[in-house]
Write a structure and sequence with these properties.
GMP Synthetase, Chain A, domain 3; 2 domains; Sufe protein. Chain: A; single chain; elongated; 252 residues
Amino acid sequence: MDTRATQINAEQDSVIDEFSQFTGWSDRYEYLIDLGKALPPLNEKYKTDFHLVKGCQSKVWLHAEVKEDRLFLSADSDTVITKGIIALLIRVLGGQKLAEIEHADLYFIDAIGLKSHLSPTRSNGLTSMIQLIKSYTRHLPEPAQTDSENEPTDKRELMIAQIKEVYDPEIPVDIWELGLIYSLDIDQAGKVKVTMTLTSPACPVAGSLPLEVQEKLLLLPFVTDVELTLVWDPPWQKERMTDVARMALDMF
């Protein structure tokens, strides 16, 4: 028996038991609405385009953070039913271990009849939410602990240090040394503006790397928002790499 997801399964069984008490879907929808209303409010700084779940009919903002090998989730939506759905996912998966989330079989969705009672667009949105949550377990490393005595005081240095924790999984060099960041600025209100590119428009991590950059910067206490623009002009060239990157890739 696979015991990796026992906590997740316990939550799923609890959800199934609760939904079994309702005889019809009108009552179940009302319960979903109540769950959505009870969802803690999402910090406004996370209601950005980079936190929007792609593929959802409604707007769904999802923020994730890794602490001690566990994934913590917060979210919001502009519709009450969808907010209830994401509340269910957070209840089942929030605070669970990364490996357990990645390999979890979310059987409660079919068991309560949720997917079969959603419109095709909402059903696709549910799938997108699950896929994004599972992708977080692979692309959101735990924040590195820093020695406060040696911590740089300049905000730009701190931002660069955060960006240097982001790697293309196929290249053993961080994206700052690769020269993927074209510009990096912060205003007095703490809003960061980043312009970045990727080595190729066909890069398989085109969706996750910009999101990871934003998540890393938002971990800094002085950052209130991140506006990230992904550009392809001018195209990235090997000449943008630093000497550190060239040495690491043996390209001298």
